[in-house]
Structures are given as C-alpha cells and as structure tokens.
C-alpha cells in the first residue's frame, strides 16, 4: 500500500518540511512560544558558563527544548479545540487545561534544574 507521504528519503524530507511549517506557525501565531524561544536563545549560551560537565549542559539545554516541546503540543491542542468549537465545552476546556498543565510542568522542571545549577555555581 502506497502511503500519501511516500517512503524512505521522500517521506523524511516531507516530514521535515511539515516540521518547519509547524515551527513557523508556532512562531507567528503563539506569543508564548516566541517568549520561550527568546528565553532559550538567552539561556543556551548561559549553559556553557553554568554547566559542570557536558552531561550537565545537555540537561540544562534539554529543559529548554522540553518547554518548547510542551508549548508546541499545547498550541496544537488549542488550535484543534478552537477548530471544533469556540463555544464553552467542558471536555474541550479540560483538554486545554491539560495542555496548559504540561507547559507548567515543563517550566517547573526548567526552574528546578536551572536553580540547582545557579546555586551550585555561586553558593556551593
């Protein structure tokens, strides 16, 4: 059975194209994504200063990417929910709240790990 997106390298290139479109969409339509991307641009260079090892630096950067990941998933859920209905709906509201909770957890993890890095760098 032929898949609509092809197979092999063709599928990989088409998937990459869709991913780029998704990043552009998030950047254009989601102010929270732009803010978190700005934070990432500021903190990636800071990770070189704060990290005690390559693995530690990877962990610091991973938390930044995890926040972006959660924001993209949350934005996708919200866009889909808004396409279904803009009227109040309990289940759609729950889905949006769950997406928001995912972003909150990702940001909480980032704060914990970066706070530990800062504390260790300056107070330990």
UniProtKB/TrEMBL annotation:
GO terms for molecular function: kinase activity. It is an enzyme of class 2 (transferase). The chain crosses the membrane at residues 58-81, 101-119. The keyword NAD does not apply. The keyword Lipid metabolism applies. Its EC number is 2.7.1.107. It is a multi-pass membrane protein. It catalyses: a 1,2-diacyl-sn-glycerol + ATP = a 1,2-diacyl-sn-glycero-3-phosphate + ADP + H(+). Pfam families: DAGK_prokar. It is found in: Cell inner membrane. It comes from the Bacteria. Its cofactor is Mg(2+). InterPro entries: DAGK, DAGK_prok, DAGK_sf. Signal peptide: none annotated. Catalyzes the ATP-dependent phosphorylation of sn-l,2-diacylglycerol (DAG) to phosphatidic acid. Involved in the recycling of diacylglycerol produced as a by-product during membrane-derived oligosaccharide (MDO) biosynthesis. Belongs to the bacterial diacylglycerol kinase family. This is Diacylglycerol kinase. It comes from Thalassomonas haliotis.
